[in-house]
Amino acid sequence: MNTFLVAHILNISAGNFHGVALYYVIAYLTMIVFYSLFSFVATKINKTTLVRIAVICYAPVLIAIAALGSNIVNYLVLISLLYNTVNALYYVSLNSMSNEVIKGKKMQTYNTYSSVVGSLTSILIPIIFGRIIDTSSLNVISIFVVIVCLLEVAATFVIEKTHLSHNKFDLVGYYKTCYK
Asked: What are 35-49's pLDDT values in tens digits?
């Protein structure tokens, strides 16, 4: 989605990089602060529940981005804060949940598949979302976003809750596990 936002900001601002720079500065600062905060929260709450909350929070943010259209340039700070706060919640919960559910050598396979799927979606989603915004009304976009959100929430019910614990989240340990 960041690819889409950056392309959209550049397109609207006639190639002015100031908006993109502002978006990324706020995005990275927001991710640092909220990733740290949500890492603490992830030790206290079921990770599956956090993933569901994050997915549900994505929907209104994405609908707001679509609704703003070319006015998004006027709300870059707010959009960057909202989107990247939800992004931090999603990735903290997903990464800590993955670390608990996927053990040992399976983590390398998981990371490979996750990287491939992530790369494909980072190419396809901006194209699809951009096309939908260009050719559709806000109602169609909203329906599309809500359907995707519901599908992702439904997918979280497949995760076995018996594997999830409330262990302390160890960011350094997680990265060591991933890159052995």
From this structure: 989 988 888 888 888
